[in-house]
Structures are given as structure tokens and as C-alpha cells.
Fold:
Amino acid sequence: MDLEQLAKLTITASVLLLVFALGLRVTIGDATYLFRRPAKFARALLTMYVIVPAVAVLLAWMFNLHRAVEIALVAMAVAPVPPILPSKQLRLGGRAKYVYGLLIAMSLSAIVTVPLALEILGWVFRLDTHINAAEVAKLVGLTVLVPVVAGLLVRRVAAVLAERVEPLASKLGTALQVVALLAILIKALPPTWALVGNGTVLAISTVVAAAIGAGHWLGGPDPGDRRSLAIASSMRHPGVALAIARLNFPEEVLVPAAILLFILVAVVATSIYGKRSAGPA
Structure:
């Protein structure tokens, strides 16, 4: 087993542990929160699956970007919420029921919205872009829904055990994530650095800034909800984005590096946004 395979295995294990730990904290009411509030649900859908993809497509058209960067911009813009994001949203004052509800609602919605968005983009740009709904369902199910439901079930049948297991699973998942990310950065930084230039960072930063702005604007009156939607809109599920790229553009070997660059920019931008918006609304 080489370093790349070990890193993939480690990051998978860390995601499963972290999302399982999340499930140990979630209630049924949290998981269904957004589905029971159609206006909030509609605003989240509009932000994540209409406004941000539209900005990404416009930027990809305006800038003379590397093909891999164009693909990464659009793929990340249509991908759902990453499963490990709630911890960051909660640290920045997000309400648990909104944060967890957003993760579940946007993950389930992605099964429909991601294939639909790719079909529309393919029609607009005369490209054969697609992804099967079953493929999205598999990714979302394995990385979000299955571990969350497993955590919910443990919490429901053994609440005391859930309280004891949750911090252990969270700490182990975090430790594995740090190790895996270091390994990924060591391998991926050289090709990622090679993509910098020709407006790449500016284009990615503009998409991320637009996502943060749209989420903050449409997140509703609660400042925690606004921050949560802003962060979710700008930081997307890299697994889904990679699947889109592999299925539609297998020859573009630099797409993973471009996705990593997008993630790095988004991490910096959301950290700055979180600190600046944490004051009085």
C-alpha cells in the first residue's frame, strides 16, 4: 500500500468516525429541521444550487483558466455540504438544529440537484456532462447518511453509551484527519502550486466570496444561521466534485489539485469571515 492509498483509507476512516460522532449528538428533530421550514429550505437551495453554480460558470467563462481549474470550479459549486463541516459551523455560533438540518437536507437534495445541474450545464455549453443519481446517492449515503443514522440509532437505544463514545470517536476521527491531510498536502502541493497564476486564485476567491455573501444574505435573521449557510455555500463535498470530474473529464489529471486549491482558499476565506462576523450582527 503506497502513501496515496494509505491517505485515502485514513481520510475515509476519519470522515466516518467524525460523522458517526455527529450522529451521536443529532436528534430526529435536528435532522428534519429544514424540511419542516420550507422558506429556509428554499433559501438554502437557492444559495447553494443556483447562485453559486451560476457565479462559478460565469467566472469560468470570463477568466482564461486552466481547464482543470474550470472543471473544479463548477464541480465544487454544484457539490453538497461536506460531512465534516458542522464542527466548524458550530464553533462559529451556528445553531445545532440548523447546522445538522442543513447537512441532511442539502445532502439528500444533492441526489436530484447535482445530476440536474450537470445536465443543464452540459446543455448550455454543449458538453456531455452527467453523473448518475445513484452515484451521488452512494457517495452521500456512505459519507453522510449511513454514519449519521448509525449514530442516531445508538443514541436512541443507548443514550449513556452514546455520550461516552462520542468524544472518543470525535478525537480519533480528528487525529486521523490531521494525519491524512498532511499526507495529501505533501503529495498534492507541487501540482497545486503549478496551477497558481493566470487569475486562478482570483477566480476561486471570487466564487468563494460570492458563496459567502449569498449565504449570509439569504441565511435568515439569526446570525448563526447566516454564518452556517455562508460557510456551507463556500465549502463543498470534494468527494462528489472528484466523482463528477472522473466521470466526465477523466483525462484532466490536475483536477484533484485544483479542487485542493479551492478548498485551501475556502478554508482561509471562511476563517476570516467567521472571525469578522462573530461580533454583533
About this structure: Residues 159-194 form the longest helix (36 residues). The two ends are 50 Å apart (CA to CA). The mean pLDDT is 89. The chain has one domain: 3-274.
